[in-house]
Amino acid sequence: MTGSRDCIFCKIVRGEAPAHVVCEDERTLVFMDIFPVADGHTLIIPKAHCDDIFGADPEDLRAVMDRAREVAGAIGRVLSPDGLGVFQLNGAAAGQTVFHYHMHLIPRNHGGSLQIHGRTPGDATRLAEIAKRLGEALRSASG
């Protein structure tokens, strides 16, 4: 677990910044986006810092993708969206705003917004509730 002192995601990994955590393992951390564009907007990060996909350890990339598949299933079971957007942005020109490799999982419903970044902070109680429900769904699916 290496990290950049000023990176907000590294601070979350170290427990120095709050987050609504869904689950974690040795390599990854899953938490709710605090500026969600939809209920269930989830972020998956490697615990080790890297700015983008180009600098990421291949094992971390595999771990993030494996975890994304699991979390996507939990989102489907818990929230029953019409679809699910999976996004990963690299560089400011691509829309990356936090320079720690991460993946967005965004539940989508017909007629809803197709944005990737929200502009309004999510309701903390609602974020905590969804994080808890997703975590429970992941635990029940694994055993």
Residue-averaged pLDDT: 95
* Helix-strand pattern: HEEEHEEH
Task: Give the proportion of residues in helices.
Answer: 25-40%
Oligomer: single chain
Radius of gyration: 14 Å
Measured distance between first and last alpha carbons: 27 Å
Describe the global form: globular
Low-confidence stretches: none
Percent of residues in beta strands? 15-25%
Describe the largest sheet. Answer: 5 strands, antiparallel
Secondary structure class reads alpha+beta
Q: Would you tell me which CATH topology applies? A: HIT family, subunit A
Strands side by side in the biggest sheet:
1-2-3-5-4
Name of the top-level CATH class: Alpha Beta
Number of domains: 1
Number of helices: 3
CATH superfamily: HIT-like
Descriptive labels:
143 residues; alpha+beta; HIT family, subunit A; 3 helices
Folded structure, characterized:
Helix 2 (58-79) packs across helix 3 (124-142). A hairpin with a 3-residue loop joins strand 1 (21-24) and strand 2 (28-32). Strands 1-2-3-5-4 form a five-stranded antiparallel beta sheet. The chain has a single domain (8-137), classed as HIT family, subunit A. It is of the alpha+beta class. It has helices at 8-13, 58-79, 124-142, and strands at 21-24, 28-32, 42-46, 83-87, 103-108. 33% of the residues lie in helices and 17% in strands. The mean pLDDT is 95.
